[in-house]
Write a structure and sequence with these properties.
By secondary structure, the chain is mostly helical. Helices cover 62% and strands 7% of the residues. The protein has one domain: Orthogonal Bundle (Arc Repressor Mutant, subunit A). The protein contains 6 helices and 2 strands; from the N terminus they run ααααββαα. InterPro entries: HTH_MarR-typ, MarR/SlyA-like, WH-like_DNA-bd_sf, WH_DNA-bd_sf. Keywords: DNA-binding, Transcription, Transcription regulation.
Length: 140
């Protein structure tokens, strides 16, 4: 193996791709993609976020969140409503259909994450903190 194959950047990219593909495959029977799952699962944790707040929470581009939200709304998973104070702001919430779809998806992805982190044993919490520290570093 070349030294490039062991570089941190390459390994982070490979792990991210491995995770995305695994989640996409696991969620396919539920009719969800990884990106759709991220939006729906985030809506379980957030109280009627704006599209911008959801983009900040997920790390997805605001334009992509808007596109995903429109598609998820047309599929009956979420509701998009105008904010009562600032009508330029669109608020997002799960519909009952979205909730009954995402709850088993969260369990499925959680199980998948447990399998991924299993080799780390008791170091998994430290690994998560280190990943969070890396995500907090401004790059652009």
């Amino acid at each position: 193996m070349s030294s490039a194959e062991f570089s941190a950047g390459h390994l982070v990219w490979r792990l991210a791709m491995k995770w995305r593909v695994a989640v996409d495959r696991a969620l396919d029977p539920l009719g969800l993609t990884h990106a759709q799952y991220v939006v729906l699962a985030s809506l379980l944790a957030l109280d009627r976020p704006s599209q911008r707040e959801l983009a900040d929470h997920t790390g997805l581009e605001p334009l992509y969140v808007s596109k995903l939200a429109r598609a998820l709304e047309s599929s009956g998973f979420i509701a998009r409503t105008r904010d009562t104070v600032d009508t330029r702001t669109v608020r997002l919430s799960l519909t009952p259909h979205g909730r009954t779809t995402v709850e088993p998806a969260v369990a499925l992805v959680s199980s998948l994450l447990d399998r991924l982190l299993e080799p780390l044993g008791d170091r998994a919490d430290t690994f998560s903190r280190e990943l969070a520290a890396l995500l907090a570093v401004p790059l652009g």
